[in-house]
Every structure is written in structure tokens, then in C-alpha cells.
TrEMBL record, chain A:
Pfam families with a match to the protein in the record: Sedlin_N
InterPro entries (UniProt xref): Longin-like_dom_sf, Sedlin
Signal peptide: none
UniProt source species: Nelumbo nucifera (Sacred lotus)
Name used for this protein in its record: Trafficking protein particle complex subunit 2-like
Cellular component GO terms, alphabetical: cytoplasm; nucleus; TRAPP complex
Automatic annotation (TrEMBL), chain B:
InterPro entries, alphabetized: NO_sig/Golgi_transp_ligand-bd (IPR024096), TRAPP-I_su5 (IPR016696), TRAPP_component (IPR007194)
Keywords noted in UniProt: Endoplasmic reticulum, ER-Golgi transport, Golgi apparatus, Transport
Similarity comment: family membership: Belongs to the TRAPP small subunits family. BET3 subfamily.
GO cellular component: endoplasmic reticulum; TRAPPI protein complex; TRAPPII protein complex; TRAPPIII protein complex
Gene that this sequence comes from: LOC104603334
This protein's name: Trafficking protein particle complex subunit
Source organism, top-level taxon: Eukaryota
Main location per the UniProt record: endoplasmic reticulum
GO biological process: endoplasmic reticulum to Golgi vesicle-mediated transport
Record text on subunit structure and interactions: Part of the multisubunit TRAPP (transport protein particle) complex.
Subcellular location: Endoplasmic reticulum; Golgi apparatus, cis-Golgi network
Length: 135, 194
């Protein structure tokens, strides 16, 4: 029995620009939709919370059954959101920091339109490798 | 090729580490590039307002990226949530990284609550530019105004940013002022917090 984890990156305009199911548990088709729904519902909470603190890592902002939503907000208000069932705060923080660096490198590409979908397969590979390492 | 020695070759830009940002770019190289940018845009538009808008859009793209990069690199991973915080971030950190020095002054407008001004004796981008009389009030500092707008917009403080020449007595070249007019929602949010 592995861990479930769903990771999305949401741009400033509330459009998801990257999605990945990262858990090591067996893939269940119906729970993928549920994960996305939970993460989108947590966006409201994040919006209010983001303006109360100048820290980037917001820890756990919302709960659903035994799943927890953790959020990391960048300076440009791009939200990295992770839905997970573990309690590994430090691992999650390191994961977010590494993905943040990857996101900055993607953003610095002058041919990348900020707010558009991230289509790089290399980025996908690296995010999954980071997930295996930290989550 | 100059400078190729034992540089590690990375297969993808995502693997390269983010640079620590101690590189400097030659002013003349930038001046040539910027002059080409202005000349190219001049051929694409029919009027001054459109030219100013295009320069601003070019700056906006820079501002959005500069915000993320500097927050990660120079600010120790902290976001700005207050108006004065983001203004002093633009006035010091952004200016220092882009132009090598902090901006000359940051003032609050006296007539309107939502106006702030960043002034500079001579904007770096205008150093080798003189505006012909028939172009009226056109200012290539619109590029810098676009950068500031990109930074403010990205951080969640939407504003209208414009660049103006302000003649000073006793000086040949006029001073440049970047005028920042914040949107309603920014002031409302600031009032809620203070």
C-alpha cells in the first residue's frame, strides 16, 4: 500500500499549468478526478491565506477525509499544490523548493508564455524523480 | 571560441544550476540591442502611443521574470504582501540588479492617494537616446515602466505605470519619473490590512 499524492501548479489566473499524479499507490481512475476537485476547492483558502504571510510555504491549508492539501506560493503568485496523505512536512518543503527552482528555469525561457501549460517532458521527468526522492 | 575550457555540458537547461547573477553585460551591447528594439517597433506602428505600448509590453515580460528570479535569489525566499514592501523592492533590489544602482528617489504623490513616483536623473536605457521634437512627449523609458508594471502585476499589485520627462532648472537633460498609479483593489486591500 503506497502513498497517494497529486501535484498541480496553478498560475496567477487560476489556470492549472501542470498536473501530475505522483503517488506510489495503485492507480485508481475515479480518485484522479476527486483529487483535482479537492485541489481546486482549496484555491479559495489559499487566496486568503497567501496575503496574511510573507512566507512561501503555507503548510497544510485544507483537509479532506485523511488527505491533506499543502501549498507553496511563489512571488508571482503561482501556486504549487500537493494533495497527500503523509505527514512528512520537511520532505514536502524540500520537494516544493526544488520544483520552484525548476519552475523558475522554465519561466526564464523567453519563448515560454507565463501562465501557459508547461509541456516540457524533461520537466515532467524531473518532477517525478523529485517526488520519488522526497515524498 | 573564447572561454571554452572544461565547462560541463548540460543536456537540458533544466539541469543547469541557476546562475548566481554576478555577471555584468556591456552597456554598449545593451544600448545597441535596445536601439534595434526601438527602431524595429517604429517600423511596425503608425503612432507614438502604439510605440510606447509595444515598449511597455516588452518590459512587462522582463518584469514578470525578474520578480520570480530575484525573490528566489536575492530575497531569501520571502514574498512581499504590503504596498511599501513591494515599492521598496522595486526601488532598491530590482534597480540594483538591472541598472547597477538603486533608484534616485521614491516619493508618494501629493495629489492622489494611489500615486507613487520613482525618479532617476538619467535612465540607463535613455543614456544614448535623444527624442526629436516632432515625437512630442515620447519616452523610451516606457520600457522601464513596463518592467515595473510586470513586477507589480506579478506580485498582485495591479497598476498603471508610465514614464515622464520632468524638466529641472539648471540641468540640460530632464529628469525621468516613473509614475505608478495603483488600482482600486490594491488600496482597499492595504486598508484592510493596516
Amino acid at each position: 500500500m503506497g502513498s497517494t499524492a497529486c501535484f498541480i501548479i496553478v498560475s496567477r489566473n487560476d489556470i492549472p499549468i501542470y498536473e501530475a499524479e505522483l503517488g506510489s499507490a495503485l492507480k485508481k481512475e475515479e480518485s484522479a478526478h476527486q483529487h483535482q476537485f479537492i485541489l481546486h476547492a482549496a484555491l479559495d483558502v489559499v487566496q486568503d491565506l497567501a496575503w496574511t504571510t510573507s512566507a512561501l510555504f503555507l503548510k497544510a491549508v485544507d483537509r479532506f477525509n485523511d488527505l491533506v492539501v499543502s501549498v507553496y506560493v511563489t512571488a508571482g503568485h503561482t501556486r504549487l499544490m500537493l494533495l497527500h496523505d503523509s505527514r512528512n512536512d520537511d520532505g514536502i518543503r524540500s520537494f516544493f523548493q526544488e520544483v520552484h527552482e525548476l519552475y523558475i528555469k522554465i519561466l526564464l525561457n523567453p519563448l515560454y508564455l507565463p501562465g501557459s501549460r508547461i509541456t516540457s517532458s524533461h520537466f515532467n521527468t524531473k518532477v517525478r524523480a523529485l517526488a520519488r526522492k522526497y515524498l | 571560441m573564447i572561454g571554452v575550457g572544461k565547462i560541463k555540458q548540460y543536456s537540458n537547461v533544466l539541469d543547469k544550476p541557476l546562475s548566481r547573477g554576478k555577471q555584468e553585460v556591456s552597456l554598449s551591447a545593451f544600448a545597441f540591442l535596445f536601439s534595434e528594439l526601438v527602431q524595429y517597433n517604429q517600423t511596425q506602428v503608425d503612432n507614438i502611443a502604439e510605440l510606447e505600448r509595444r515598449l511597455e509590453d516588452a518590459g512587462y515580460a522582463v518584469g514578470a521574470r525578474v520578480l520570480e528570479l530575484l525573490c528566489h535569489r536575492d530575497k531569501g525566499n520571502r514574498r512581499e504582501t504590503r504596498l511599501l514592501g513591494i515599492l521598496s523592492f522595486v526601488h532598491s533590489t530590482v534597480w540594483k540588479v538591472l541598472f547597477g544602482k538603486v533608484a534616485d528617489s521614491l516619493e508618494k504623490g501629493t495629489e492622489h492617494e494611489d500615486e507613487y513616483m520613482i525618479s532617476e536623473k538619467e535612465l540607463l536605457v535613455n543614456r544614448f537616446i535623444s527624442i526629436p521634437k516632432d515625437m512630442g512627449t515620447f519616452n523610451c523609458g516606457a520600457f522601464v515602466a513596463g518592467i515595473v508594471r510586470g513586477v507589480l502585476d506579478g506580485a498582485g499589485f495591479p497598476a498603471v505605470v508610465t514614464a515622464h520627462f520632468v524638466p529641472m532648472e539648471g540641468q540640460q537633460r530632464p529628469r525621468t519619473t516613473i509614475l505608478i498609479k495603483f488600482a482600486e483593489e490594491v488600496l482597499r486591500r492595504e486598508a484592510r490590512f493596516s
